[in-house]
Amino acid sequence: MKRKQSIEHVRWDLALRYRLIETVAWWEGRLTTNHLMQSFGISRQQASKDINTYIGEHAPRNLTYDKHLKGYVPSKQFRPLFIDDSADAYLHLLNQNHERAPHIEGLALAYAHTEVLKVPDRSVRPDVLRPLLRACREGLRLETEYVSLANPAPEIRLIAPHTLIYTGMRWHVRAYCEKNRAYRDFVLSRLRGVPELLDTSDFGREQDEGWNTQVQVVIEPDPRLKPAQKALIEVDYGMQDGRLVLDTRGALVQYVLQRYQIDQNKVQAKAAAQQIVAANLEELQRWLYS
């Protein structure tokens, strides 16, 4: 209990260094003071102090010094306190920080053998994003011009945004739309001009049913696949008992299906091309748009 409490009260700057200590040691197998020095611009003395403090006050059994490697290595009893030691977490870290790899010597080997497909984000202007952030934070209405495929000409919209959403391909803002009298998603790159902040809105996140309703998306192998093929797909997606259950919000169901490349309006002719399906698609219909 004391150990957990001490971790919770670690200063944020030290917590960042401890996270790097654990990440480098666990995934790269060798930690030196140079890793901290180059990543945080601190002196060798400070880096050595950070490592000793991490060992002495938080994780005395996690690291041992290897004279041959001239660095600290994870012990057999290594138990991370500041990071998630799952492979998914590390791969996500590589994805997030790929461009910052030169600044983290400890991860250099991993980055040198990793290539992340870069999909350009849709153009989002700072003068659009800043008022949106404030409106979300303070619960304000705002007036903006918006274009869509249905209406390519700019149209004035009065909206009350509450949350920014990234779908993996582009950014949206979830907002109450006074024109439609309902909550909608607006693509940030389709906002025109500079949004004008107005007064406080009565329609916030709490009133958004789609946002507050928890929904499960159940994914299974295409039933047309052979048993051996289904077993392969189950491993690919980390399924349990032949299915993958994803917890999400009603408002995000459409994006979840898109990320898994499941088109509710079309089924691939070949099962090998389809691979997976939403087993509870009928239950999800109320959250889908055409």
TrEMBL record:
Instruction: Show the stretches that span the lipid bilayer.
Output: none
Q: Which residues form the WYL domain?
A: 127-194
Could you tell me which InterPro entries the record lists for this protein? Answer: CapW-like (IPR016634), CapW_CTD (IPR059020), CBASS_pafABC_assoc_protein (IPR051534), WHD_CapW (IPR059019), WYL_dom (IPR026881)
Domain of life, per lineage:
Bacteria
DNA-binding transcriptional repressor CapW winged helix-turn-helix domain location: 13-96
List the signal peptide residues.
none
Query: DNA-binding transcriptional repressor CapW C-terminal dimerisation domain spans which residues?
Result: 214-284
Pfam families, per database record? BrxR_CTD, WHD_BrxR, WYL
What PANTHER family does the annotation carry?
PROTEIN PAFB (PTHR34580:SF3), PTHR34580
Q: What is this protein called?
A: WYL domain-containing protein
Q: Which organism is it from?
A: Metapseudomonas resinovorans (Pseudomonas resinovorans)
